[in-house]
Amino acid sequence: MAILKKDIERLEQIYKGLKTQREPLVRMWREIGQMIDPFYGEMNEDSKPEQVVLPDLNELKDGTIGYYSQVFATGLYGYTCSSKSDFFALRAEDEEKAEDDTITKELQARQRTMYKTFASSGFYSTVLPFLKSYGDLGSGAMMMGVKDGTIYYEHVPSYQCQALKNPYTGDVELFFRSIWLTKYDAEKAFGKDKMPREIKESKDPLEYHRFIQMIAPRDRFDFLDISENDYKYVEVVWAYGCTADPVFVGGDDYRRFIVCPWSGQSLGISDFAWGTGAPGQRQYMAAKAMTTNLNDQWKSARVMALPPIKKTENIAPDIHPGGFIDIPAGGDISPMQMGADLSWTVATAQRLTAMAKSDYFVDFFLMLSQYQGNVNTATLAQGLQNEQVNMMTTMLDCLSRGFFQPVIEYTYYKLQELGKFADSKVNIDFSELKIEYISPLYLLQIQSATIQPTTGLMSDVLQMANVDPTILHYINMPEYLRVKADATNADRRIIRTDKEAQETIRLMNQLNQQAASQQIAIEQQKADAQTTAANAKVEQVEGNQNTSKFAGVTLRR
Fold first, then answer.
1. CB of 103 within 8 A of CB of 95?
2. CA distance 412 to 422
3. 553 vs 549: CA distance, rounded Å
4. Does the pLDDT at position 264 exceed 90?
5. Portion of the chain with pLDDT greater than 90, in percent
6. pLDDT, tens only, 430-487
7. pTM for the full predicted model
8. CA separation, residue 73 to residues 276, 321, 361, 393, 515 (Å)
């Protein structure tokens, strides 16, 4: 593979073009960070790590919406992919294979291997910042890869990368990332001989140098000579601004980056890779208004506690807390009376708070604390839960397609390449499988759409059965059991297959028949014994009559 300096120059031009197109969005991200969570920092990919400016912690800010943002991220993490419970299951697409116990057990074993990989690789620790960015900025980015035979996952701040979406498939394919490395780290990653002259001559071991990483489908750029391999995705890394060959050229058969937008079609632009309409993008102006409101209220409270001194007439007062104003000779001195009604500011803050709480689904994630004392029936609580879950449908669809599916697919294929499934006796490809999301939130979504109506029907049927018991013959109870089990992710080990159930029914019927036959035999024995006893008694009476001392004596009349 021969990628020359002139090719790097063209790639760098494309990178700069994408950066220019995205700059208005980055300006909005900075505003969001300042008003919702100042620890996002400056969001400047051109700055070296040591130049990142921490937020001004002396400035008074309203943290209500920032708290809602944290509730959303932690709640979504806990309800969709917690490290304490399974969040996906692999099933065979083919129904016959899905009923095969050998295939089912093999897929369960592969799932356990994948979960161990997630736990040991730090995947779960990268999910929370990803979801925080997803809710605040409208998109989240992540890198995946294999190093020293181990899969790793890395959250990438959205402002550090550029991306472009394929308008036909909807997948984000072109990806640029800005990386800052010291000379030591760069040499460890790419090799000393790959370093350009500018970095080799650097004497400061703590100086950071900027690199650009590009990943794209192999047919994306016809000017790149990638004929030496057949990777589906080509990867190039070069030192930014250095007139040198790339420090790394390689590839992969699987897309190892993720850019997940909040919404599928943003701004009506078909190749726009970044999402819009996220809670943070809608609420950062509310956070700004609430901060201004808080500062005004604080200033008003200080003025009322330490009012300025009143001047003489026709002289404008200099109003500030504890202020003192020069008084001309003969002028009166008295504190000003601050009698303005500021209650409207409280009402305004309450309205903004209510909208932000709804936008971040706080009422769902903190349902017990939010509705304590207000929900007095289980039906009302269930209705409120279903309402919130149904409102999350679009968001959950975007997350499953743009985040969970590529993570699961990449992990599966890489574990297969690394030989982690080598002991398998089942030959089944990932393309033959379907992913079922079984985390609490996805199950609630399924139950809201399917199980709740079905359970309601069953409740009505049982009531009607009191009037007409034959209506129960219209209900397929085994299928109802399976539907209920699927929707609740019940452990499948407790449910028998059709074959096992039929065999159990046959044995039960056989046992029942044997028991019935034995009961009939017992009853017959009892009846025979009673008949025998009765006959014996009759014979005894007749015998007693024949042996009496009056036997043969005829009485006169």
1. no
2. 13
3. 9
4. no
5. 34
6. 889 999 998 888 888 877 667 667 777 777 777 887 888 888 777 777 777 777 766 6
7. 0.77
8. 17, 40, 10, 16, 61
Distance CA 334, CA 336 (A): 6
The closest of 19, 49, 55, 51 to 37, measured between CA atoms, is: 55
- Among the residue ranges 210-219, 361-370, 395-404, the one predicted with the least confidence is 361-370
Q: What is the pLDDT of residues 321-345, one digit of tens each?
A: 656 556 666 555 555 555 556 677 7
Between helix 279-305 and helix 5-36 the angle, nearest 10°, is 40
Q: Cα 30 vs. chain centroid, distance in angstroms?
A: 25
CB 225 within 8 A of CB 2: yes
For residues 357 and 68, the answer to whether their CB atoms sit within 8 Å is: yes
Radius of gyration of the chain (CA): 38
Six-digit token pair at 426? 């089942």
Residue 37 pLDDT greater than 70, yes or no: yes
Distance in angstroms (rounded) separating the CA atoms of residues 261 and 397: 11
H or E segment to which residue 279 belongs: helix 279-305
- CA distance linking residue 178 with residue 75, whole number of Å: 30
In the structure encoding, which two tokens stand for residue 215, read together? 């990943």
Beta bridge partners of 435: 90
d(CA 455, CA 549): 84
User: Hey, what are 362's tokens?
Assistant: 């706080």
Structure tokens at 194: 């790959």
Model pLDDT for residues 118-176, shown as the tens digit of each residue: 999 989 999 999 999 999 999 999 999 999 889 999 999 999 999 998 888 888 889 99
> How far is residue 9's CA from residue 215's CA, in Å, rounded to a whole number?
16
Structure tokens at 56: 């001004």
Query: Closest by alpha carbon to 19, among 51, 45, 48, 42?
Result: 45
Alpha-carbon gap, residue 194 to 199, rounded angstroms: 10
Residue partners of 174: CB distance under 8 A and separation at least 6: 163, 164, 214, 215, 216, 220
**DSSP state, residue 254:** S
